[in-house]
Amino acid sequence: MKKWNILGLMVLGMLLLSACGEKKYAALPINEEVDICVICNMQVKDDAFATQLTTKDGKNYKFDDIGCMNKWKEQNGSEEIGMDYVRDYNDKEWIEFSKASYVYDESLRTPMAYGMISFKDAGSAEAFVKEQGLGTVLTAGELASHEWTQNQNMMNMDMMNDEEHKDGEMSDDMESKDADKGMDMTQNSSDK
């Protein structure tokens, strides 16, 4: 009879432990070849701006900018989020969103021009602000009342730079072809 009591207590103990166990959510690695931001459809780079969240049912969503993750939360609510992560600006280490410190300044260049970067602690965020001479340090709680707007001038400049870059590549290609032609003409005339 004692064996059954001990066995019963052990089984009951294991059931209690498993029922009380909190579900763990881990940050997933970024795969630049396939990871696309679910809000803006841009490639998610394996950099300091990448963020992600996992819902309680296990779906993982990745974002190229913390502003995009905030937009997802506004559209879908945060009650179904199991865990959300941001990256430390200095070493790209994943940090739980609620434990990170943030720096905002509209002039900070981020992928979607939201001007928000994250740090693993307030000291690192304050050091960044002091070093750069700009920005405001915020907590995760303060982000709930933050006005999430994109710096439209920066977005327009990025679009213009992309166009100039494309035009520049074409011009460079044409210049090098012209230079090659000129070199061929010089070689031909010296051969005569």
From TrEMBL:
Residues 162-183 have a biased composition (Basic and acidic residues). It comes from the Bacteria. The keyword Transmembrane does not apply. Keywords: Signal. It holds the Pfam family NosL. Residues 1-26 form the signal peptide. Residues 161-192 are annotated as: Disordered. This is Copper chaperone NosL. It comes from Paenibacillus monticola.
